[in-house]
């Protein structure tokens, strides 16, 4: 996926919000914003990838302000709020009569969890929306390839689950549990370092992912989405040996859609911005379950 002109305003807005989270020092704020503007002038081109630009913006803000994780508090709150809603989501999954229907409901809950992301202009998210959105997830499903995803997952022996955001990862535990019932070995991968509000090992452990997954690893890097030349050799070995990949969120969608994939990938995301929505041919604020073969 490539950028649209809308991406420039979003990258700038999110950078501005992140700078404010990172520091109250006006001189550092101006220095960070000046560096961000220079970066955009140099690298914002029609051939650019939005996740790549987001990664560089995030690194720039952290480097200039000296704050390693501006979203640390937001991520902690996200995990707490998600765990409060998790019992409702778990009940909705367990109430379904068949394996496939439970898998479907777990997918929907996991996708809704992807709405937990901050400072995106097209995503006016509030934690109080979670219960309603989970109960109405089917209504917001704009691309529904869950049945095909279920069939592929049933045949898989090694599944890699690429997690996205803190908070969201609590709902991912439900889908990992349903996948585990099919018998595969499941490795869940989180980011190797702070980037935006993406989940790290600390977040995975906080929500109990280590209890349901066979293994938890990291990508070995702090990139938004999948950037193979920055990932660790250990992670790439896991990725290349997986016969099915579940990829959560817009960052993975933005990057994996540019690759020639060797294994089936299930993209599960919420369209939180118009460029991603346009790429998939749907409206913003919709749930997407897309199988890439």
Biggest beta sheet summary: 7 strands, mixed
Instruction: Provide the spatial order of strands within the biggest beta sheet.
Output: 1-7-6-5-2-3-4
How many E-type strands?
7
Looking at the structure, the CATH topology of the largest domain is: Rossmann fold
> What fraction strand?
5-15%
Low-confidence parts: none
**Can you tell me the number of structural domains?**
2
Describe the protein in words.
- The protein has 293 residues and is an alpha/beta fold.
- It has two domains: 6-65, Helicase, Ruva Protein, domain 3, CATH 1.10.8; 72-292, Uncharacterised protein PF01937, DUF89, domain 3 (Rossmann fold).
- The chain has helices at residues 6-22, 26-43, 50-65, 72-94, 99-113, 130-135, 146-155, 168-180, 201-206, 209-212, 233-241, 250-256, 274-280; strands at residues 141-144, 158-162, 185-190, 215-218, 244-248, 265-270, 287-292.
- Strands 1-7-6-5-2-3-4 form a seven-stranded mixed beta sheet, with helices on both faces.
- α8 (168-180) links the parallel β2 and β3 (185-190).
- The model has no long low-confidence stretch (mean pLDDT 97).
Task: Please outline what is shown here.
The protein has 293 residues and is an alpha/beta fold.
